[in-house]
Design a protein that fits this description.
about 70 residues, alpha+beta, about 20% helix, 2 strands, flat, 1 helix
């Protein structure tokens, strides 16, 4: 069984935060943050989340992309 801890933080509406912890859940290994303005059209927001997720994970895991 695992355990969870909740921490409250304030973010601007339209912010996507992804935290990845080690398997014990005690150490933050990686955090990705993306922001965009939300639309009144849900289908457009779905596309924005997909695009933001792709961009966030483009260089994951850290060090996987060789920078020039």
């Amino acid at each position: 069984m695992g355990s969870a801890t909740t921490t409250e933080s304030e973010y601007v509406v339209g912010t996507l935060v992804v935290d990845i912890f080690d398997k014990t859940g005690k150490n933050l290994l990686w955090r990705g943050i993306a922001q965009d303005e939300l639309s009144n059209k849900p289908e457009k927001n779905v596309q924005k989340v997909a695009k933001a997720s792709d961009k966030l994970f483009k260089e994951f895991p850290p060090g996987s992309v060789v920078k020039k």
